Sequence to fold (290 residues):
Amino acid sequence: MDKKLNPEQRNMNELINDLKNSDWSVRAKAIFDLKDYDDKIVINALISKLNDENENVWLSAANVLKNKKDPRIVNELLKTISDKRDEIRWNSIYFLGEIGSIKAVNPIIEKLNDPCVEVRINAARSLGKIGDKKALDALTHALDDEDPMVRKEALTSLNSISPKKPVDYLVNSLNDADKRVRSLAAIIIGKTKTTRAFDKLIGTLNDEEHIVRISAVFALDKIGGEQSVKPLIKALKDPYWEVRSDAASALGKIGNKIAVVPLMETLKDENSFVRKSASRALEKFEIFKR
Fold:
């Protein structure tokens, strides 16, 4: 019978047969080799591997199927979202996020309470990728998660789904116990130019972590305007050079002349990058032109 098939069809059939091999590595390789086939028989065979007992085979099948358009793939991944194995659960959620199916939103929301932190991280991240607004409340609650990476992903997803949402959660995140979350909150405030959080943002210029202070300067740079000038001038005295350098650059962009004298003083800074930023900022004021 195979003699009537062309070489590509014979190869396809051989690969499908390899999916039943007792050696998991043979099954995984067959899945990889079948990735460019869109034949319905191949899709059916690959979907069956989402029940494979070997995690590597399952992962290979899910990775290939996420790019296919068969609606059954979402249904099968939703079955494994509650698998007893942590790795299968968080990968199922990851792939559902990559596919972007609205059907997966409610089941993924439930996984924000999963005992495995990697599952919760991927749940928060995938909800942002899918982008359905019914996840907003659950993601806001996730900002209280005990793990900072969950809080960070929840913050990112909230901003992705609804960047114009009230900024209360952003202000609260500026007080987060983790520097990465505080830093991200400041960056988002800057990107959205949320002036309602301005006073709290200025307070982060005194944060003990320089990465947060850098993010605060970034935000002030993005927000701009006269209100940002005095806080940025103060940041020229920050103990960390990158904060000082970024503050000088931001002052040059804003262009308020009350920054000229502080910038000229910064030309004496011990750090060459800070001096260079101050010099470039002063050039924008054109005070050295004859």
Q: What stands out?
A: The first helix runs from residue 7 to 18. Residues 158 and 231 are 28 Å apart (CA to CA).
